[in-house]
């Protein structure tokens, strides 16, 4: 699948203290990753004040996540063994289009059900566009960010940035 195996290898190298972090970001940008879809939105999780888009390098990694969610009592509306719908997206699209569309600090978390293979790509310069990076300096006052009237769920689909029927982002 579109470089995701290479991405998993680069993550393993980086976790072992090898490789260049910029190469790892480049590998995410090139890779096609799987992002669970539920209720028309991409699956996200809130942690540390950041909205994380949950992405997976292959179907096996996504299946481990689904099993872990089921074992933890999550997704009560799903029957055991139900298949999870997912979108296959290029990492660059996640970082350059979907993260900014969320309107809140957001990053990408890869293979989060794999303690030895997980990697977070936080919303900082060099990973996401500078105008949504939380570490970008401002040259002066800017308008405060606008948020939806209802707070997004702490865990589940991000309705604001799911794939549309035409493959676009809403």
Spans where pLDDT lies below 50 across 5 or more residues = 76-80, 139-154, 159-170
Profile the largest sheet.
Answer: 7 strands, mixed
Morphology: globular
The string of secondary-structure elements, in order, is HHEEEHEHEEE
- Tell me the helix content: 25-40%
State the end-to-end CA separation.
Answer: 25 Å
What's the total number of strands?
7
Q: If you average the pLDDT, what whole number results?
A: 79
- Secondary-structure-based class equals alpha+beta
What is the rounded Rg? 16 Å
**Helix segment count?**
4
Estimate what percentage of residues fall within beta strands: 15-25%
Descriptive labels:
4 helices, globular, 170 residues
Summarize the structure.
28% of the residues lie in helices and 22% in strands.
């Amino acid at each position: 699948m579109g470089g995701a195996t290479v991405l998993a290898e680069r993550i393993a190298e980086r976790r072992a203290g090898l490789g260049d972090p910029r190469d790892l970001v480049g590998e995410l940008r090139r890779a096609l990753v799987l992002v669970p879809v539920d209720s028309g939105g991409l699956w996200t999780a809130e942690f540390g004040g950041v909205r994380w888009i949950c992405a997976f390098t292959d179907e096996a990694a996504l299946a481990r996540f689904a099993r872990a969610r089921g074992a933890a009592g999550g997704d009560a509306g799903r029957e055991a063994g139900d298949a999870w719908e997912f979108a296959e997206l290029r990492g660059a699209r996640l970082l350059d289009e979907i993260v900014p569309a969320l309107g809140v600090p957001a990053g990408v978390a890869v293979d989060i059900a794999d303690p030895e293979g997980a990697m977070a790509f936080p919303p900082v310069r060099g990973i996401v566009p500078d105008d949504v990076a939380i570490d970008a300096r401002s040259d002066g006052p800017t308008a405060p960010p606008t948020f939806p009237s209802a707070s997004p769920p702490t865990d589940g689909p991000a309705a604001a940035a799911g794939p549309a029927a035409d493959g676009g982002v809403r």
